[in-house]
Design goal:
Chain A is an all-alpha fold. Chain A is built from six helices and no strands. Chain A is rod-shaped and about 95 Å long. Chain B is mainly α.
Chain lengths: ~110, ~180
C-alpha cells in the first residue's frame, strides 16, 4: 500500500521531468558545458588571475636586478626605489607633465 | 577521462536536479541558476574526488544553494513589504499546471497525468523544507538513507523521520487522488 503510493509519486515526478520543455533542456546543457569548461581551463591560466600586478612587477624588477647585479654593486637606496617601482598602487611619477617638477624637487633635496 | 565522467554524471542528474530546485524555489529561472551554481561548485571543488562521491556531494551543494536563495528571497520579501508598491512577480503563486508545456489537444490520459503532476508538485512544494528534501532525494532521486543523510548534512535517523513525515503528509493530502 505504502510502496504503491511511493511508486506512484515517483512515476508522476518522472513523467513531469520527461516533459521539460526545450528551452529548459537547452539551458541545462549550457550550464553543464559552462561547468565543464571551467574544469578544462588550464591551471596556469586560473593561477594567473589571482596574481596581483604588484607581485608580477616585483618579480620583473628582481629579475633585472639579478641580471645586472653581477656587474656592479647595488647602490644605496636602491631597495626603496625597487619597492616604489613594484608598488602598483603608487602614483606614476615618471609620466605626465610633472616630470620637471620631480627632477627639480630631487635636486633641491640633494642640495 | 575525469572530464568525460563528470559530463556523464552531470548529464544524468541535471533534469532531476532542476525539478528538485524548481519545487524548492517555485521559479524556473531561479532553479536553473541553482543547478548551474551547484554544477560549477561540484566541478571546481570536488571534480577530483572519486565518482561514487559525486551524487551526495552534488545534492548537498544544491540543497545549500536552494536554501541560500530561499533565505535571500525571504529577506527581499521583508524589505519589499515595507515599500508602498510591491513587485508583482514576487506575489505570483506557483502554478505547475500553467507552467507545464502547452500544445496540441491532449488525450484523456494526458489530462489525467497533467492533473496528477500539478497536484503532486503543489503538495511537495508546500512541504517543510527538510521533509521536501528527504522525500525528493529518497523517493525521486533514489539515494539510499546513508547518501541522503550525507546530502542533507544530518543523521540517518533524521532522514527517516523527515521522509516518514513527508510521506504521511502527502498521503493525507493526495490519498484520494493517488
Amino acid at each position: 500500500m505504502s510502496q504503491d503510493f511511493e511508486n506512484r509519486t515517483r512515476e508522476v515526478l518522472e513523467e513531469s521531468t520527461a516533459r521539460l520543455d526545450g528551452r529548459t533542456l537547452s539551458r541545462l546543457t549550457r550550464a553543464r558545458h559552462a561547468a565543464l569548461e571551467q574544469a578544462r581551463r588550464p591551471v596556469r591560466a586560473r593561477w594567473r588571475l589571482f596574481v596581483p600586478a604588484g607581485a608580477a612587477a616585483t618579480a620583473a624588477v628582481l629579475a633585472v636586478m639579478l641580471w645586472t647585479g653581477q656587474q656592479k654593486a647595488v647602490e644605496p637606496g636602491a631597495a626603496e626605489d625597487l619597492e616604489m617601482l613594484a608598488d602598483s598602487d603608487a602614483p606614476v611619477f615618471a609620466e605626465g607633465d610633472d616630470l620637471e617638477f620631480y627632477e627639480w624637487a630631487a635636486d633641491e633635496i640633494e642640495t | 577521462m575525469a572530464s568525460r565522467a563528470l559530463e556523464q554524471f552531470l548529464s544524468s542528474v541535471e533534469k532531476r536536479a532542476f525539478k528538485i530546485a524548481q519545487l524548492g524555489l517555485r521559479n524556473d529561472d531561479d532553479a536553473l541558476d541553482a543547478v548551474q551554481d551547484a554544477m560549477m561548485k561540484l566541478v571546481q571543488s570536488y571534480g577530483s574526488r572519486s565518482s561514487e562521491e559525486w551524487r551526495p556531494l552534488f545534492y548537498r551543494i544544491l540543497a545549500n544553494v536552494i536554501r541560500d536563495m530561499q533565505r535571500r528571497r525571504t529577506v527581499r520579501g521583508r524589505i519589499m513589504a515595507w515599500l508602498p508598491v510591491r513587485d508583482a512577480e514576487d506575489d505570483e503563486d506557483f502554478d505547475p499546471v500553467a507552467q507545464a508545456p502547452s500544445g496540441e489537444p491532449t488525450p484523456a490520459r494526458r489530462l489525467e497525468l497533467d492533473e496528477a503532476i500539478g497536484t503532486l508538485e503543489t503538495a511537495i512544494a508546500e512541504l517543510p523544507r527538510r521533509q521536501q528534501q528527504a522525500f525528493l532525494l529518497r523517493n525521486f532521486e533514489g539515494l539510499d538513507v546513508s547518501e541522503t543523510a550525507s546530502a542533507m548534512g544530518c543523521s540517518e535517523g533524521s532522514v527517516k523521520t523527515h521522509y516518514f513525515r513527508a510521506l504521511e503528509s502527502l498521503r493525507a493530502r493526495l490519498g484520494d487522488v493517488f
